[in-house]
Amino acid sequence: MSQYSEEIERRRTFAIISHPDAGKTTLTEKLLLFGGAIHVAGAVKSNKIKKTATSDWMEIEKQRGISVATSVMAFDYSDHKINILDTPGHQDFAEDTFRTLTAVDSVIIVIDIAKGVEAQTRKLMEVCRMRKTPVIVFVNKMDRDGKDPFDLLDEIEEELQIKVRPLSWPIDMGQRFRGVYNIFEQKLNLYTPSKQYVTENVEFKDITSPDLETYIDPTQAAKLREDIELIEGVYPEFDVNTYLDGDIAPVFFGSALNNFGVKELLDCFIRIAPSPRPIQAVERVVDPNEDNFTGFIFKIHANMDPNHRSCIAFVKICSGRFERNANYKHVRFGKMMRFSSPTAFMAQKKEVVDEAFAGDIIGLPDTGNFKIGDTLTSGEELHFKGLPSFSPEMFKYIENADPMKAKQLNKGIEQLMDEGVAQLFTNQFNGRKIIGTVGQLQFEVIQYRLLHEYAAQCKWEPISLYKACWIESDNKQALENFKKRKAQYMALDKEGRDVYLADSSYVLMMAQQDFPDIKFHFTSEF
Ligand code: G4P
């Protein structure tokens, strides 16, 4: 316990994740409405990058710019301080989302009742599983027709590989949607389609009571009783600890657009979702309640104004209290630094703050001092572990297109990689630099930013690669042998780790067969 424990205990820092269009922006907005952080619907802009804009980089950036303002949305609700971390909707920025997940204590996944589990959700859930992040599922758009809820739950269990436990249950759907039975609070929430205000709740402990028929029609009442009986029979009793361990995901149903089921979600969320949790650093486990400040950079957002090459480094505070103008150690540099204008993000405003506590996110104006994963402390030599890099999906050689600007190009590449825009591999055979990304957009981002921020010109040359594999072996000789045999395909990543660049799945499979002593990893930490 520390003098700050009370502050820390009341914090809930989480991200809402979904496949684009499932309703993340709408849900975020309704949560902000409850928190009084905004007053009208429509105030939160989606940071979704419209598909039509993919060829127009400036337009994309304009849209993406919105996401700086809404990167973190904080508000107070019922004695709790809620920090929602926004994640980019476009899949080409999936790495951004992965990193944001390193800074949250829990996650709400939004699933569209009609579409079920979609590709992006699956990928993001993998990261949550890896980190054992507690997850709540919100099944959205119940005002529309969709899948049978039981089938959807099976699909979630199978596709997301997590056990589920419904804590609310829908009464019909689409045109006939009548509301949900809140199993967690034993209340009947009746649905009135309305975009602005909360609907009526009726305490209803015993759904076998014939009173149910005074609220909903007899066929719906019979179906609800049957469903609830089945749920109680099939799913285990809800146990908060299994949720906190990341083993079970409670499920809520509702309609974000109609503000239905959202308050129930929020009320349950503040009760069961974790306050800041201990974090494993390389040296030791850091408890949020320690007096001394520690934190790490999980995201760097560049200022798109070409005249100012400044960034905002986003810090997740892991323990203690951060104070404006205090001296903190930048562990990688081994030097003390002072920050005179740290910003916090209240609702949609960014403002300078004097203090912040474990669980909070602050933004530090930066001119190139930080890279993703950097640790700040009150003086201790400590290193938080970041999220491992995943193998990119696309690869291109990057070449200098202006021989006079080689230095600028190298500096630009290095800084953009520190920001986490993409991954750099240097081929050990020919010395050429290869950039790996998850989507085409990132190549455009890099080219544009190199030109506008570093006055460097690059050109891309094709290279056909399938995956980057980080390799290791207990057998030194076997490792050397492999590296010699595959010399043309060996590269070093930015941290100097050995990476094998496989040009096809077949070649990779053969390599795995032919070199049983070598372990091939698709993420950079293992
Ligand atoms: P995203 O951030 O996950 O990408 O999704 P977003 O909230 O932008 O929602 C995607 C679309 O789904 C929006 O419609 C939104 O109005 C709609 N939507 C969200 N929740 C519900 C719901 O509970 N029921 C129904 N029927 N629709 C819902 P759009 O037409 O794409 O955008 P807009 O013009 O309404 O903003």
Number of helical segments with 4 or more residues: 14
* Beta-strand percent range: 25-35%
The chain-level structural class is: alpha+beta
Give the biggest sheet.
8 strands, antiparallel
Mean pLDDT: 87
CATH topology term of the largest domain: Rossmann fold
CATH class of the largest domain: Alpha Beta
User: Into how many domains do the coordinates divide?
Assistant: 3
Give the tally of β-strands: 31
* Assembly state (oligomeric): single chain
CATH superfamily (homologous) name of the largest domain:
P-loop containing nucleotide triphosphate hydrolases
Bound molecule kinds, no repeats: guanosine-5',3'-tetraphosphate
Classify the helix fraction into a percent range: 25-40%
Tell me the overall shape: globular
Q: What is the annotated CATH architecture of the largest domain?
A: 3-Layer(aba) Sandwich
Strand order of the biggest β-sheet: 27-24-26-25-29-30-28-31
Low-confidence stretches: 49-55, 65-69
N- to C-terminal distance = 33 Å
Evaluate the radius of gyration: 25 Å
